[in-house]
Amino acid sequence: MMLRLFVAIALPQPVRIRLSLLGGGIPGARWIPAENLHLTLRFIGNVDEGRSQDVDDALQSVRAPEFELVLEGLGYFGSARAARSIHIGVRRNPALEHLYQKIESALVRSGCEPERRKFSPHVTLCRLHNAPAARVAGFVAGNNLVREGPMPVTEFTLFSSFHSHNAPIYRPERVYPLGMTWGPFEADAEGEDHDGD
Predict the structure, then answer these.
(1) Which fold has domain 3-154+162-194?
(2) What's the CA gap between 67 and 69, in Å, rounded?
(3) Are 42 and 118 in contact (CB under 8 A)?
(4) What is the pLDDT of residues 10-25, one digit of tens each?
(5) Which of 23, 89, 112, 181 could form a Cys-Cys staple with 31, CB 3.0–4.6 A?
């Protein structure tokens, strides 16, 4: 069986709800459901079960400190006339960069292809299709003072992604604690906080 995997920071539920409430007012926008909002650290892609075990083993080796995260500054990817998505950015954070580099190095050692794109941390709020440029610009300008945090980041998560009719379903496969010296624990042992991230 193939799994479509990515590594991310799961956001606290109150943060996800507040961000999801920003949604609306842009024709052609497909807003991300609150339960799917997250900060991607590394997209891995489709792997078989053997490779997924290699990925898990690699991520177990990552050691990095806990830190705090601030989300701020709305922006979009694509051109002003043809934006592809709207996101909230992340205040510059050396600890987050350090964690990303540790994860990238571990995954490459496990056999994953190196990530060619520059790490640009963000949380995607919506995806756009033929959205009016003026409405996109107005939304970004009108919400640019939105800020969330500082919020504690004490772990990162390996997610699997499944397609459904309405929106992808993200399932936490494994949670890896930060600032600790022992191994990770199963995501479902953490209770409901990680469900659906």
Answers:
(1) Cyclic Phosphodiesterase; Chain: A, (3.90.1140)
(2) 7
(3) no
(4) 999 999 999 999 999 9
(5) 23
Residue type at 4?
A: R
Distances (CA, A) of 75 to 87, 172, 180: 6, 27, 34
- The token duo for 136 is 């996109």
Q: What is the residue whose two structure tokens read 């936490």?
A: 172
75 close to 86: Cβ distance less than 8 angstroms: yes
Q: What is the pTM of this model?
A: 0.86
Write the DSSP string, 88-122: EEE---HHHHHHHHHHHHHHHHTTPPPP-SPP--E
First to last CA, the chain: 22
Q: Assign 3-class secondary structure to 35-60.
A: HHCEEEEEEEEEECHHHHHHHHHHHH
Mean pLDDT confidence for 71-93: 94
Both structure tokens of 53: 């075990």
